[in-house]
Design brief:
The chain contains eight helices and 13 strands. The strands form four sheets. A seven-stranded mixed sheet has the order 6-10-4-1-5-12-13, with helices on both faces. It has one domain (2-210). The protein is α/β, with parallel strands linked by helices. The two termini are 21 Å apart. The radius of gyration is 20 Å and the shape is elongated. It is 27% helix and 28% strand.
Length: 226
């Protein structure tokens, strides 16, 4: 399976230097999915005994689990060919897309959950009883048991992201040093392309979504957005 990470040029340079993808917070206040950041919690039992501090503590427990969001191949095209993803996550086309071989990612399997996002017609709801939400020591057990709903299901309006997600509480990054397949930039004649060519050099192929193939230059591929 091939995975694709969209990012801006500055972030790419940091990733390239360390060959690490860092886990980042999925905090409800910074997540751009208004459905997911609310997660539609349904509380059962003695609802009136649950106060704001209990809710904030529960959200903090969820926020302790960080994530890496990637794109997988679409049915009709490669995962690097999404104009929406380039526009939203790669600096309006001025950024970079890194293609990765999933089987060559290096991370401890026992500390990371990995799964493609399942998109639902209705936003998934998390049901939790009042006693569990009030007791912080029970939060992790609940999150682990309900991780599919909490982290790997989203509303269908986000299905064009075709997301594959890594989630971890303890692992700070994923090592991609052996998993990089290719580096994509939008335009051959751009500042981004110049910087990427200079940094990447001969280590990996640099491919361009809008380019005219040149004889003898196998790094150029004549492709365009679909």
């Amino acid at each position: 399976m091939r995975l694709y990470h969209y990012t801006n040029l500055d972030s790419f340079l940091k990733i390239w230097r360390n060959k690490h993808l860092l886990f980042s917070t999925s905090h409800k206040r910074t997540n751009n999915d208004i459905f997911e950041k609310q997660k539609y919690i349904t509380i059962t039992g003695d609802v009136l005994s649950v106060n704001r501090k209990h809710l904030e503590a529960f959200w903090t427990s969820i926020d302790n689990y960080k994530q890496i969001s990637l794109t997988i191949d679409y049915r009709d095209c490669q995962g690097c060919l999404s104009p929406m993803m380039w526009g939203q996550y790669a600096d309006n086309g001025n950024g970079v897309c890194i293609e990765l071989d999933y089987d060559k990612l290096m991370y401890p399997n026992d500390t990371i959950w990995a799964h493609r996002i399942v998109y639902k017609k209705l936003h998934p709801q998390v049901t939790i009883d009042a006693e569990t939400i009030k007791e912080r020591s029970l939060h992790d057990e609940f999150i682990i048991k309900n991780r599919d709903v909490i982290f790997f299901k989203k509303h269908k309006h986000w299905r064009n992201e075709n997301e594959f997600r890594l989630v971890s509480k303890d692992c700070p990054y994923v090592d991609i040093s052996n998993a990089i397949v290719a580096i994509y930039v939008n335009n051959f004649n751009s500042h981004t392309a110049y910087v990427v060519r200079k940094v990447v050099a001969d280590d990996h192929k640099v491919k361009y979504l809008n380019a005219i193939p040149i004889d003898g230059d196998m790094t150029l591929i004549p492709v365009s957005f679909k």
